[in-house]
Amino acid sequence: MALVLVLQQVSDAGRVKRAANTNCQTNPSEMDSENVVDDADTLSMSCNNDAKVVSCIWRHTDPISEKETGSLANPTILCTGGPDDSGKTCLSEPRVTFRNTENSCAIDVSNTEPEDTGRWIMTAVTLTNSGSTQDSEKRFEVYTYNRSEVVMIDEDSMPETSIDTTYNWDTREEDWLDGTGGYENVEFSCLAYGGRPIPTVKWYIDNNDNDDLSDDDGDLGHFNVATSSIGSDYDYIENSQSTIDFQIDDKLLEILGPDGYGIDINPETGSFSFDVTCEITQDNQVTAQETMRIDVARKHDNGQLKGSLIGVIVGVVLAGILLIIAVALLVFAKATSRWCFADDEEPNTKPSGPVRGGRGGAGGGNPQAQRRRP
User: Fold this and answer.
1) Residues 271 and 157 in one domain
2) Which of 25, 77, 242, 345 has the fewest beta carbons closer than 10 A?
3) Smallest Cα–Cα separation from 294: which of 171, 203, 220?
């Protein structure tokens, strides 16, 4: 047993103690996709070491370059400095300033940029008791502000700035337009690429940002909005998509009309337009806006009665006129004993045989009046 302890002590004496990085930290201390370093701000990273530091090597490759090259072999930032370089800037990247000591490696990165996001690797080169060098490595995860790039796409995922559609109900004829049997549905999306922090999306009509169409519990209640992350081909980069859809129906016209947004929804030209805006907010600041123009074709309603109703009214009027004429003719015929009303005359009471005359004689001669003799 004693022999084993002796051999262990000899082995420990000959082993070189590995230097270790300790108390590694960043400022700001907590960083992730929701908590990022502001644009053009200052980022600090540091580590202590329990051995004497000879030099500190800092490497960083932005996520896009790392994805394209497939490794960290060609860093976009490479800075090397020792304790004597404290206060000096990196030759290849003047935004990086060294704050090294004999037992620590530290840098400040000023005027932070979106490309500063990603992995930063610090390698501390230290001296051993025997005079040889060894290295120890520490990786930092950094998230810096990145404004989203925004683009509108239609339902076929094609970039678009306007959509043509139709209001299919003919309000004058109270029927669907020829070839239709229902309302049109409009759908399009707002893509927000690479936002840090992850953006929030707000939809509204005609620059009226007081009405958030994304609010299902709002007064409008006609628009369906779905927002989600759609991933990315790159680490540390998130893309978002917000899709809105709605029908071109009576409810929409009510929202857009005189009692809503004040849009003339029944113009004589046969079409009207309105804008739907996608607004991107990051860190409580509006960072981007894109607009989709919706052009709606509508058959103009001039307020007159529909054709079928006019036909009914004309038919009723003509029938009434014909009835009046018929009654008038019947009254006239009866008054003048025409047509069938002639059979209704009084019977002839005149004698049909000869009429006997007076005493003047028999026969049919004219009766002579008696004259008195004088």
Assistant:
1) yes
2) 345
3) 203
Q: Which of 228, 262, 297 is the last residue of a domain?
A: 297
Task: Write down the pTM of the prediction.
Answer: 0.71
Enclosing domain of residue 155: 149-297
Average pLDDT over residues 201-214: 86
Same domain? For 53 and 123 the reply is yes
Residues 243-269 have pLDDT tens digits of: 999 999 999 999 999 999 999 999 999
The answer to whether 253 and 301 have CB atoms below 8 angstroms apart is no
d(CA 282, CA 225): 19
* CA separation, residue 270 to residues 175, 185, 296, 299, 300 (Å): 17, 19, 9, 5, 5
**CA-to-CA separations, 261 to 36, 258, 275, in angstroms, rounded:** 39, 6, 11
Same domain, 138 and 164: no
Q: Do residue 155 and residue 136 come from a single domain?
A: no
Q: Which residues contact 194 (CB under 8 A, 6 or more apart)?
A: 114, 146, 148, 149, 232, 237, 238, 239
Report if residue 10 sits inside a domain.
no
Q: Looking at 120, 142, 164, which one is the last position of a domain?
A: 142
Residue with tokens 């990165």: 109
pLDDT of residue 303: 83
Tokens of 237: 């980069």
Residue 156 has pLDDT above 60, yes or no: yes
Q: Which two tokens stand for residue 344?
A: 């209704």
The pair phi, psi for residue 142, each rounded to 5°, is: -120, 135
* Residue 110, in any domain of the structure: yes
CATH of the domain at 35: 2.60.40.10
* Residues 6 or more apart in contact with residue 243 via CB below 8 angstroms: 187, 188, 189, 190, 225, 226, 227
Here the tokens at position 229 are 């992350």
187 and 79 co-located in one domain: no
SS3 121: strand
